[in-house]
Input
Amino acid sequence: MDKASYFKKMEYQDEAYEALCKRCGVCCGSQTSDPCANLVKLNDGTYSCKVYETRHGPQSSVSGKMFACVNIRDVIKSGAYYPDCPYCKGSG
Ligand code: SF4
Ligand code: SF4
Output
């Protein structure tokens, strides 16, 4: 496989992985009383991150609690389990 095809394949796999997300916001605290301050509820009931492209690193909850935003793979590795999250299926 040439380099261009390889990168195209990687891009496709990333998009397919991202597409699994149901935008429920649970991993960002949508079902808690103190979610991430960057979490926004959209009109269709799903959630979005205001800083998605630069999200990884220190972030703050609405009440000001600091935490580190990490990739969902790392959230799951740390032991978190969200029953309705497609990424958690089979990991719990
Ligand atoms: S819990 Fe899973 S499905 Fe819900 S927003 Fe987080 S990654 Fe997406
Ligand atoms: S910064 Fe991280 S925890 Fe906060 S809304 Fe965005 S993805 Fe979720």
Notes: Residues 28, 36, 38-39, 49, 51, 55, 59, 69 surround iron/sulfur cluster (ligand 2) (CB under 6 Å). The first strand starts at residue 39 and ends at 41. The mean pLDDT is 92. The chain has one domain: 21-88.
